[in-house]
Amino acid sequence: IVDEMLAGFVKCHSDIVKLVKTGEENPRGVVAAVDAPIADKVGIVTGGGSGHKPAFIGYCGKNMVDAVNEASGLEFQLVEDGTPAFKIFSGRFSYIAVCGEDSEAARIKSGYWGESIVLQCVYHGLGTCWVSGTYDENKVYKAIDLPKKHRLYAVIVVGYVKDKLSTKEKLMYNATHKNNKPYQKMFEVCDKKLPPYYEYAMKLVEKAPSATNRRPVHFRYEDDIIKGYVDEPYSDKSLDFGIAQLHFQLGAAAKGIKGEWDNNGRFCTENAKVIKFPEAENDEKSNIQEDNENE
Asked: Is the pTM of this model over 0.90?
């Protein structure tokens, strides 16, 4: 869960919960009842594992959509019965209408925040699918309440997946899951070898979903800075850019690089430094050097 989503959840439900910072040992804080602590009452602390979290706060449903909207300024909407708008899916499922203002920035944010929902749902055992064209758009518009000057960009289908795919589903899967484009071919310019943490981040970009697996984002690595863009920013390619941004950011963070994308498509890091942990041998040399200097 990204910090903004947690803050958004708390802000949406500030009448019943609050975020309590607990110091350096847990900088993200904990979610607690708004009136806690309560005299003569026992508190229960839980990490909320993959099975508990959805049960506690419904994080794979409306609450998660509310939290994303609060954090991002977008207008995602959950439709619990998604069957009327689709003919290609079987069984019962829901969908999230990915909506926002009609702008390039909103398209990118929709991809970024929509993919954050996808990853959370998959983590909790749900099946998901980005869909941009194979649904009845009129029925989706009837099911949602879209504010003026906002538009529908795509939908994210959410439900439980059958153990075995039908022949039709296998054909669709094979048609939309071609060989991945290697990240090396996504670069227009790369003035030197990528550092290991950016290599890992780009490998996660390879795994990011993209319409027909086209991978439309162009990357540049110059002067130790990563930048990206798409050829047609006022199209659903910007959704793909937002999705790629999230995968890159999560990959970099996993390797100790904390950063975020700015409005110009540049990945900005905090002091552009890798978080490194000293090795024992280096510690000993450092201590010996300090002792010598003190003498």
From this structure: no
